[in-house]
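Exercise 3.2. Students should predict the tertiary structure of the chain below and write it as structure tokens, then compare their answer with the key that follows.

Predict this chain's 3D structure.
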Amino acid sequence: LRHLIKGVYPASPSSWLFVAIGILATMYMQSDPSMGLITKIQQHLPLHMSLSAQGQTMVSALVFSTLLWLSLILALRFCLKLLLSYHQWMFEKHGRMSNTTKVWVPLVRLLSSRKPLLYSYQSSLPHLPVPAIQDTVSRYLESVRPLLTDPEFKRMSDLANEFESNLGNRLQRYLKLKALWATNYVSDWWEEYVYLRSRGPIMVNSNYYGMDFLYVTPTSVQAARAGNTITALLLYRRKVNREELKPSRVPGTVIPLCAAQCERMFNTTRTPGVETDVLQHWLDSEFVAVYHRGRYFRLWVYRAGRLLSPREIEDQIQRILDDASPPLPGEEKLGALTAGDRIPWAQMRKQYFSSGVNKRSLDIIERAAFFVTLDDEEQGMRGDDPEGNLDRYAKSLLHGKCYDRWFDKSFSVVIYKNGKSGLNAEHSWADAPTVAHLWEYTLATDAFQLGYTEDGHCKGDVEPSLPQPQRLVWNIPAEVQAQVSSSLAVAQALADDVDCHVFPFREFGKGRIKKCRVSPDAFIQISLQLAYYRDRGGFCLTYEASMTRLFREGRTETVRSCSNESCAFITALESGETEEECRRLFQLASERHQNLYRMAMTGAGIDRHLFCLYVVSKYLGVESPFLKEVLSEPWRLSTSQTPVQQMNLFDLKNHPDFISLGGGFGPVADDGYGVSYIIVGEDMVNFHVSSKYSCSQTDSHRFGVQISKAMQDIMALLSADPKTSLSSKGTGQPQSKKLQ
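Answer key:
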């Protein structure tokens, strides 16, 4: 039934009945609405021997009704696709809606009025358009102008113009051919070449993490926290499987986002290969894989089709915690194979894990719904050094001991000894907003829906005859143990080099920023530019992740946040220009940033198009000096906002301490910073900064101080303007209130 409901959206299965009754009623009134088609259908139906003339007419009318109904569905879907291809509403100034948008809004509402399932909109989402090559090249040149000297810019312009007029057009033709048959011309290549073909460690370089509540740990009982967390994750999986989740939408609007990334959330593993890894997904799994003190276990979470109660899962986890058996030879640090380089892991897997007990045990880990680590450390913001402990908590989630997470799993959940939790997610199957949605649901369900007894245990009854968790058996030869040590050394060197700093910025939040009539994201991005300028004495190529899920199978696009306008504002501020001039330049920089963000969201970005042209050039075996140079430029400042998507789950008014810390990732460049931030409520922004100790020019704590100072300096500048809070200048914010 789900497939039928989803397949006929935006119509409903019951609408067939109305069409059929309508056709039969008009025929009863001696009228032929089919203009002779029903008679033709009747002549070709092989039923004239077994049915009366009236019966044949009835069957023919029903066949015609069905064909008409299907045609109407296709027409409705085509109309919805056309409506969802319109993105001009995003670029309109706040309060200045065009007539086209005024007509468009009710039409979208009308065609989206039925309650959709999770994947109902998939076939109605537009395909990502291929931008014109001259547009992409001119946008690229504009984005690098503030970073290059005049001679450097002249050289780059010559390279770009030569590319555009010669090789570029040829590559563009091939790319347009691909866009005709591919659902999304970027996503499959992006997944393969950026993620799956990468041969270096995925730990730190690719995987990212999500944190628990900042101030609250719902229970200090490790097994109980595991019981509720595992239950909440499995309840979410049930919602995904039954398509009971509401489709994600552009915040404050009815515009749907692609839900394709949800499909591989559970029962998914990245398996290593010599040339390229492969994502394997199983339809279902009734168990999770658990790691504790060097041992691996299979924990069944269903009994005769029934999901175990949180208390039953807590009991099973407690059995694992109480199990005093030692790890088998080579078992304890086996997970390091997933943390090191991919080729040695692929070779070991093929040679030693393709038969016997090793294959059976590895299959259990890879086919599990997800991976659970019962960590024997305590983490969180606690004790005499809360700031330092937050940094250690981030490092623990990003890499742990380098062998106590299974980095290949779609995600690994970590439950600490003191009840704190977190997760580590593999990046190739989905982007952070999809995982953040899952994690928000998990935290809220754990704390507010499932809850705990007064003594901190899970609720629910326990069936005494549950089978024990099953210890996995391994036979690990000396060659594998040697490779485990080698992979661990590579991973440990990488982990030791990561400088993580997490800090909550409590001076103000989006509430005060919005009073200045500025987009919170633009405010933070310009603050990051100012912080970097003060930290390193110059500007750099900046990556801000934006999603392209307005399109089918869309993933991300780059917003090049370092613009001519942001550089002009920072130069003016730092050189002591008047406050009025600085405010004017800030306004221009803010509007420019929002415009860049919207262009990225609506398929008019720069980097994915150039990346795909580069892939085409590789397939054709031709060299492009321009593309080679563009794709080798380092992103010294890589940034991403973690969106809060389900504020309805968190009652921050009555439970202000239940604030999410968000998550973070490792630095993209060896001499750069990775910055993730989450805007929580009205008065707080949490920042996650990462860099490498091996680079003498970067320091995550120093950069954190610069971010705080930049935020406060810009706020002081804007607050000093008596007109700011009353300003009627539009900042081009989306017409969110009008589209609800």
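Discussion points: The longest helix spans residues 53-84. The chain is about 45% helix and 10% strand.
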